Structure formats: structure tokens, C-alpha cells
Amino acid sequence: MALTTSIRLPDDVRDQYETLAQATGRTRNDLMVDALRQAADRQLREIAMVQEGIRSADAGRLTPIADVVADFKAAGMLPADYALEAETEQASV
What is the pLDDT of residues 7-30, one digit of tens each? Predict the structure, then answer.
């Protein structure tokens, strides 16, 4: 079952999806549904990881920040080239 809804798209986003639709032979609707599904899946995974981290911390099971960063990189939540050292140096200044 599908629900019809509407959103306001900036012209540039609409144009991008029109270009994608023409290039791939897919409909703008299908492309947008895929994009929304991927975004929702990613955000739900991120929330689940954060909630698990909170439960672990509450139970006294702490994880070194380097391991957390590695997990976030592996899950695509941080860019592969993210450097923890740069972040900790800024915090100490």
C-alpha cells in the first residue's frame, strides 16, 4: 500500500531528480522513495548505535573513543578520513 504526499522541492533538487530520472530511465518518484528509504535507514541505524552506547555506558561498559569512531566510520556515519586527533586537539585548546 502506498500513501500519496507532497513536499516542496527547491528547483535545483527537482532538476537533479529530473536529470537522474532521464539518465536512469526510472521515475522521479522511485528515485525519491529510494533516497528517503536510505536516509531513514541510515538515521535509524545511527539512533540505534547511540542508544546502545548509552545503555552500555549506563551499565558501566565504556568503549574507548577510538573504537567508537572506528564503528561510526564502518557504519558510514563518519567519513573514512575523519581524524580523531584533530578533534581532540581542538577541544584542548
Answer: 999 999 999 999 999 999 999 999
pLDDT in tens, 37-71: 999 999 999 899 889 989 999 999 998 999 989 98
- d(C-alpha 21, C-alpha 47), whole Å: 31
Give CA angle at 38 (25, 54), nearest 5°.
175
Q: What is the DSSP letter of 80?
A: T
Domain boundaries, the chain: 27-61, 63-93
Q: Return the closest-CA partner of residue 18 out of 29, 7, 8.
A: 29
Quickly tell me which residue has 526510472 as its cell: 26
Of residues 7, 8, 33, the one with CA closest to residue 20: 33
